[in-house]
């Protein structure tokens, strides 16, 4: 298996050379992508790094982490690489644990692996409280929108993917900036790729994050909702119509019926001053109760419908 590492380079001049030096011999090629870095990360690597495996790529303008990774993915596919591992250049992702990320893919058990800092309580000691709760909330939203109920820590950027799976993804449509890690999970689910979490510890260097939570939170919520709607429409209405589809439609119709019927009679009771009869209350409550049960059944079906058969398994056998 030909292993490549992709390193997004933007304001990482203090750590990137150490990160490259720590990458083991199992890696054949290292793509260092200068994302129009104002500090000249790419030029620094070219001038001071003597590792023959390193190939520096330059984005003509700043494209964000997603645009940077797409450039590296395209290069890796063109060069015939089998697995591409993403490691940030800020020193927060130890290259020593890289074999843990490629092992499930090499063994044909996963198409895509990602880090999980929530797997062990000890791994969270260095994580700030705000990030801890923020990641927990984002994890739940990602489970809903992307359908991978078995994964946690969706913003973790330490990832590995088989290039055979990359060829099936619409790389030009994947989010270019901070929503990249979540958006690629959404696209992986649409092709039924298997995602596997790799336990890792949280490491925080002295690099400051460029992400402003107050600005991106509304945008993230909107994008999660849109992907949830698109995933549902594609997987449960267009590509397939199954028992989960039936549960969701019946649940939505019954809940809406109960709410509308109950709301109309509630307003009528307020305007006339006459309380609704017990029969009217039951006619409003019963569809709502049954509808909620159907929606819970749909949620249970969606959780059990996580992809389990790796797409890359056949590619590895052929290799």
Tag the structure with descriptive keywords.
seven-stranded mixed β-sheet, 319 residues, 7 strands, alpha/beta, 11 helices, elongated, Spore Coat Polysaccharide Biosynthesis Protein SpsA, Chain A, 2 domains, 50% helix
Strand-helix topology:
Blueprint: E1 3-9, H1 16-21, E2 29-34, H2 41-48, E3 54-58, H3 64-78, E4 83-86, H4 98-106, E5 112-116, H5 129-146, E6 159-162, H6 163-166, H7 180-190, E7 195-199, H8 213-238, H9 243-272, H10 278-304, H11 312-318
Parallel strand pairs: 1-2, 1-4, 2-3, 5-7
Antiparallel strand pairs: 4-6, 5-6
Helix pairs in contact: 5-8, 7-8, 9-10
The rounded distance between the terminal residues' Cα atoms is: 8 Å
The residue fraction in helices comes out at 40-55%
Structural class: alpha/beta
For this structure, what is the CATH homologous superfamily of the largest domain? Answer: Spore Coat Polysaccharide Biosynthesis Protein SpsA, Chain A
User: Low-confidence segments, ≥5 residues, pLDDT <50?
Assistant: none
Q: What is the helix/strand order?
A: EHEHEHEHEHEHHEHHHH
Q: What does the largest sheet look like?
A: 7 strands, mixed
Radius of gyration: 24 Å
Shape type: elongated
Strand order of the largest sheet: 3-2-1-4-6-5-7
Number of domains: 2
Number of strands: 7
What would the CATH topology of the largest domain be?
Spore Coat Polysaccharide Biosynthesis Protein SpsA, Chain A
Q: State the helix count.
A: 11
The CATH architecture designation of the largest domain is: Alpha-Beta Complex
Q: Quick check: average pLDDT?
A: 90
Q: Strand percentage, roughly?
A: 5-15%
CATH classification class of the largest domain: Alpha Beta
């Amino acid at each position: 298996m030909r292993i490549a590492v992709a390193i997004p380079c933007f304001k990482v001049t203090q750590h990137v050379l150490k990160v490259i030096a720590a990458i083991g011999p199992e890696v054949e090629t290292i793509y260092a992508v200068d994302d129009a870095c104002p500090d000249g990360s790419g030029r620094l690597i070219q001038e001071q790094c003597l590792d023959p495996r390193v190939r520096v790529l330059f984005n003509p303008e700043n494209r964000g982490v997603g645009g940077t990774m797409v450039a590296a993915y395209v290069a890796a596919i063109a060069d015939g690489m089998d697995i591409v591992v993403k490691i940030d250049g800020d020193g927060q992702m130890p290259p020593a644990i890289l074999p843990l990320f490629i092992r499930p893919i090499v063994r044909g058990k996963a198409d895509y692996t990602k880090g999980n800092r929530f797997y062990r309580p000890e791994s969270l000691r260095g994580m700030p409280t705000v990030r801890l709760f923020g990641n927990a909330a984002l994890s739940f939203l990602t489970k809903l929108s992307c359908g991978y109920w078995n994964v946690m820590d969706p913003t973790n950027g330490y990832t590995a993917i088989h290039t055979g799976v990359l060829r099936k993804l619409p790389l030009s449509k994947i989010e270019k900036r901070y929503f990249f890690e979540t958006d690629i999970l959404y696209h992986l689910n649409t092709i039924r790729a298997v995602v596997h979490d790799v336990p890792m510890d949280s490491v925080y260097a002295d690099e400051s994050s460029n992400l402003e939570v107050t600005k991106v939170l509304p945008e993230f919520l909107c994008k999660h909702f849109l992907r949830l709607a698109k995933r549902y429409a594609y997987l449960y209405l267009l590509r397939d119509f199954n028992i989960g589809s039936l549960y969701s439609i019946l649940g939505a119709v019954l809940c809406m019926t109960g709410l509308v019927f109950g709301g109309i009679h509630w307003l009528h009771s307020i305007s006339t001053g006459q309380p609704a009869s017990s029969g009217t209350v039951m006619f409003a409550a019963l569809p709502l109760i049954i509808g909620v049960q159907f929606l819970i059944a749909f949620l249970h079906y969606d959780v059990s419908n996580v992809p389990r058969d790796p797409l890359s398994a056949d590619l590895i056998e052929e290799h």
